[in-house]
User: Fold this.
Amino acid sequence: MINGELKISVIVPVYNEVLYLEECVSSICNQTYENLEIILVDDGSSSPCREMCDEYADRDKRIRVIHKENGGSLSARRRGIEEATGDYVAFVDSDDWIELELYQKIVEVISEKEPDMITASNYFRNYADGRSMNVYENDRTGFWKKAEFEKEVFPYFIKTSDFFDTEFPVAMTYYSFKADFAKRNIVKIKDRIKTSEDYTFLVISLLNAESYAAISYRGYHYRSNIKSKTHTYKNMKELLRPAYETVNEAIEKSEYREPVKALLKKKNNFHMYHALMLKDYGKLAEVSDDFLFPYTKVKRGSRILIYGAGKLGKQIYAAVKDCDDYTVVGLADKNWNLYQGQETEVCAPENILSLEYDYIIIAIVYVNIKNQVKRDLVEMGVDADKIAEVDLSILDEAHLPFGRKQ
Assistant:
């Protein structure tokens, strides 16, 4: 495939995004690689977002707008994939943006190797206050054929040496796929899957791929709101079940050996625990009467301090602050000042030593940040034995709350 002749269809699901849509679309239109088809899938937006999409199409002949009834992100991406005319498809969320050389970097690999799927594995997390964080520092690059997946791809997709560690991101926006390959796989993702659809699509794609490529280029900007309120999905357990079952069934039907299937199922468990901890931790807090799941060293009756005021920290705090089994003495974060005026008071790390606690729970998902926090706490004088982390040994199928009585 010759560089320049290859066309990438960039699919952007849009639902009432007005504030950031211009930046998103402009970052795609201004790519140094110009042979693009830009598909804005208007997923039932109201005015003025609907009209904005049409105005963009008038401005750039490469933009095509699909207006449809609201069906959610998966529905919008499915429609975009079905109607894409490019050789490859890629995805950008309507409130995010991309570096101007992203597709040039990807096309350079595609032109030579033509992988079924390729990821630019590092990305930026951008906050409303102007801060930017580099997510991952993965330097694992290469091209692998199916026979190499067992050793070179699967162990790095969701590493099981730490909680949800990965060198290959688990979101469709960081990948490009051969268009015909994506069309074959998207039909395997049923509409009953309402959450973790990205993860489900990626696993099914990996199971069916003949080749995979990765570059370490950091080209995607994910927009995050550090001041968002804690939002718990009360039916998250049941929302996750279809994705969990779909992935396990796909693994079981795959041609891989039993040890590989067992590893992938373990990864599936890890993903479900990750989703529950970020969106409905309360269900996990009910798993054990003896300790605070999955922090097995934190026994019932403990006084706990939660370090990390992001989604995970807020979920844990909300679930245990009013219960009789544990006493929450505080919520701490390095960026404590950014959380002032929110629903929960957050203190600075230097205040920790003045508090009385039995354990500090590190409520941080990113492994490199979590490990740095541990080092910082020990240097401050915190007893390492009082630092609690996720116990990986109990992140198994038996402790998942699917089917467990309320």
